[in-house]
Design goal:
CATH topology: Nucleotidyltransferase, domain 5
Helix content: 40-55%
Oligomer: single chain
Number of domains: 1
Distance between the termini: 28 Å
Bound molecules: zinc ion
Strand content: 15-25%
Number of strands: 6
Order of helices and strands: EEHHHEHEHHEHHEH
Structural class: alpha/beta
Largest sheet: 6 strands, mixed
Shape: globular
């Protein structure tokens, strides 16, 4: 089974922010221990007396307002976020990143949480479908942070079965009941938090230093970065990896109609 751990960054309601991001990692079940242990190892350096008490929450580490991050130098705190992302970067090939960055102004009247959730379910389903086509038949399970849009996302999750029916084949490979877990208890949700934070920084603040660490982990096939979606209508020539890879693939198809990419 593949587990898709998801967390959010940015606020759907905050008009000061241009973006809302839902993102995370798809992990084959046997990889969860390795990822958890690697984060435990980083935690041992931060609080040797109580490593399990260290929760990696990127925006809290970045702001350095509460312990154990409070007295840390800025570079050291940013180094902790990067260390977590480097664990993802060097993980097994069956650990993949997924993200959807919604430019809220491009979709007036739509709920960005709903847009991102549907988009990610579809991307995860396509990933599982590709594995299935290659002979690896696996179900997918969604695992979300309990505090993630407690109301909206939990309602979407409750309606998941109905939505699955509405979407037809969209969630064919995904188990119909998502799980909500406490981020404090799950190192995997903490990695999802760092992915969401990095993608948010990439699009909302144009700060690529975190995103670039694990950019190669996004699900990719035939030159298209399927694992990353940049939903926007304002930048037709956007140079982000998601938009650029789709444009290049499209122009290859146009210039060579026989090239069935
Ligand atoms: Zn883009």
């Amino acid at each position: 089974m593949y587990l898709l751990y998801l967390d959010d960054a940015g606020s759907a309601a905050n008009s000061q922010e241009e973006y809302f991001v839902l993102a995370g990692i798809a992990v084959f079940e046997t990889q969860t221990n390795w990822l958890s242990q690697e984060l435990d190892r980083i935690a041992e350096n931060i609080d040797p007396a109580n490593p399990r008490g260290v929760e990696f929450h990127a925006s809290e580490i970045f702001s350095r307002r509460s312990p154990p991050w409070k007295n840390m130098e800025r570079e050291d705190a940013q180094g902790v976020i990067k260390a977590v992302l480097k664990v993802l970067a060097r993980s097994h090939n069956n650990v993949r990143a997924f993200a959807c960055a919604v430019h809220k102004g491009s979709y007036p009247g739509s709920d960005p949480v709903e847009l991102a959730f549907e988009d990610l379910c579809s991307r995860f389903n396509i990933y599982l479908g590709r594995l299935r086509a290659a002979g690896d038949i696996q179900q997918g399970l969604l695992i979300l942070d309990k505090s993630t849009y407690e109301t909206t996302l939990q309602k979407l999750a409750r309606d998941f079965q109905t939505r699955g029916t509405q979407w037809g084949a969209v969630i064919r490979n995904i188990v119909d009941t998502p799980f909500f877990v406490d981020s404090h208890a799950s190192r995997l949700i903490q990695i999802a938090d760092h992915v969401a934070y990095s993608v948010f920084r990439r699009y909302n603040a144009r700060d690529t230093q975190y995103f670039d660490i694990f950019a190669a982990k996004f699900d990719e096939a035939d030159g298209i970065i399927h694992g990353l979606a940049h939903k926007q209508t304002v930048e037709p020539m956007c140079m982000c990896p998601a938009c650029l890879s789709r444009r290049i693939s499209q122009s290859a198809r146009i210039s060579n109609p026989d090239n069935n990419l």
